[in-house]
Amino acid sequence: MTALPVPADGPAPSVRTLTVAKAINESLRGAMAADPRVVLMGEDIGRLGGVFRVTDGLQKDFGEHRVLDTPLAESGIVGTAIGLALRGYRPVVEIQFDGFVFPAYDQIVTQLAKMRARAGGRFGLPVVLRIPYGGGIGAVEHHSESPEALFAHVAGLRVVTPSNARDAYGMLRAAIDCPDPVIFLEPKRRYYDKGEVDTGAAAEPLHAARVVRPGRDATLVGYGPTVRSCLEAAAVAAEEGTSLEVVDLRSVSPIDFDTVEASVARTGRLVVVHEAPVFFGAGAEIAARITERCFHRLEAPVLRVGGYHMPYPPSRTERDYLPDLDRILDAAERALAF
Question: Could you report the per-residue pLDDT of 173-188, keeping only the tens digit for each?
Answer without folding.
Answer: 999 999 999 999 999 9
